[in-house]
TrEMBL record:
<keyword id="KW-0564">Palmitate</keyword>
<keyword id="KW-0472">Membrane</keyword>
<dbReference type="GO" id="GO:0016020">
    <property type="term" value="C:membrane"/>
</dbReference>
<keyword id="KW-0732">Signal</keyword>
<keyword id="KW-1003">Cell membrane</keyword>
<dbReference type="Pfam" id="PF08085">
    <property type="entry name" value="Entericidin"/>
</dbReference>
<keyword id="KW-0449">Lipoprotein</keyword>
<comment type="similarity">
    <text>Belongs to the EcnA/EcnB lipoprotein family.</text>
</comment>
<feature type="signal peptide">
    <location>
        <begin position="1"/>
        <end position="19"/>
    </location>
</feature>
<protein>
    <submittedName>
        <fullName>Entericidin A/B family lipoprotein</fullName>
    </submittedName>
</protein>
<dbReference type="GO" id="GO:0009636">
    <property type="term" value="P:response to toxic substance"/>
</dbReference>
<dbReference type="InterPro" id="IPR012556">
    <property type="entry name" value="Entericidin"/>
</dbReference>
């Protein structure tokens, strides 16, 4: 019983970290796009 609970907790933690990684990656892309727009506006 204890091993099952531990396995479920480890699985949830692993899935949570993977989804957080995806979120951070998406946020990085958004920041990059914003930086490109600012750079383009500054060059005009």
């Amino acid at each position: 019983m204890m091993k099952s609970i531990l396995l479920v907790l480890v699985t949830i933690a692993a899935l949570g970290s993977l989804s957080a990684c995806n979120t951070v990656h998406g946020f990085g892309k958004d920041v990059q796009k914003l930086g490109d727009k600012i750079e383009g506006a500054a060059q005009k």
